Amino acid sequence: MQLRLEGVAQQAGSQAYLFPMTLAPVPGAVTILLGATQAGKTSLMRLMAGLDRPSAGRVLVDGHDVTGMPVRERNVSMVYQQFINYPSLKVFDNIASPLRLLRKAPAAEIAARVRELAGRLHIDHLLDRYPSELSGGQQQRVALARALAKEAPLMLLDEPLVNLDYKLREELREELAQLFAHGDATVVYATTEPGEALLLGGHTAVLDAGELLQYGPTPQVFHYPDSLRVARAFNDPPMNLVEGRLQGGRVTLAGDISVPVPGAGGHDGPVTVGVRASALRLAGEPGAVAVPGRVALAELSGSDTFVHADTPVGNLVAQFAGVLDLALGEPVSLHLLPEQIYLFDADGRRIHAPRRPGGLAADVPGGAAAAAGAGA
């Protein structure tokens, strides 16, 4: 199924929810809508589903204009943040309902499919219960199973795991990634979490304040953000951003810290330097530049330690594997490798990115990703 949104926008009175954008999710693959709350993800999904009509633009399915066609006339399955189940049906019958109503499958096939999906979503022991007897997370898994059972050519998932506990959310992300990889549906999955986008893979569309900023293969968008806005949206923790001046292939930061940037010539002037938290080191490596500072905060998250340090260039956040015992106010030296930094010009456009092993060049232009985002 080829879904294409051409110049769609959504506005109510003077309030713009979506600015004009064109987006064509890759058929049979996963497209992630990544953005903070109120970025426009749900508004865009409602246009895809036929729940709303765009204020401008067209919605095409396999080349046919379906703009304004109601959702009941489209073969779409959708899972919301808040679970929706049939309260009078047991879990088994909730999951089986699309198989019976739409596909009219034989009873044995229905039972096998229901138990397969229930097992994958860890609710096979709940098949004889009613939704009112389940926790919120269990009900959400029932809604997911029913959507998967429908096997619609277009599946829309609006932050479907947000109400689940951390451990189960991690497990189901992996299960969903496998289910999507072996399915034929075009899947659109909305999330606020960059880590979820990276795990699910596919393609990612980065949204911010109703604008489509970039669309392309998820690893490419992550490693080569076209702009500061994309870099901010597609990092957790946020990318460290500090002001500097590029001159003759070197960036000068506050505190007279100078960093050589191979391949960044021809862009002299003020720049914003971006460094991922995971790219900073406590111990120096050959060619690394030291940035002195003091520990402002050290926090544990899972098996990693996040160190916030006050430095001459500003507050920096570094991510280290394992548990580190660092006292507040303790002197610390963070080391960055020149080949790991990003550069953005005064207009926020990326002008330099780290070279990825076996990947694109460090100075890959943003235009390619921008064209993909426009559905060109």
TrEMBL record:
PROSITE patterns: ABC_TRANSPORTER_1, ABC_TRANSPORTER_2. Pfam families: ABC_tran, CysA_C_terminal. SUPFAM superfamilies: MOP-like, P-loop containing nucleoside triphosphate hydrolases. GO terms for molecular function: ABC-type ferric iron transporter activity; ATP binding; ATP hydrolysis activity. Its EC number is 3.6.3.-. It comes from the Bacteria. The keyword ATP-binding applies. Keywords: ATP-binding, Cell inner membrane, Cell membrane, Hydrolase, Membrane, Nucleotide-binding, Translocase, Transport. InterPro entries: AAA+_ATPase, ABC_transporter-like_ATP-bd, ABC_transporter-like_CS, ABC_transpr_FbpC, ABC_transpr_MalK/UgpC-like, CysA_C, Mo/tungstate-bd_C_term_dom, NA-bd_OB-fold. One of its GO terms (cellular component) is ATP-binding cassette (ABC) transporter complex, substrate-binding subunit-containing. Residues 3-234 form the ABC transporter domain. The keyword Hydrolase applies. This is ABC transporter ATP-binding protein.
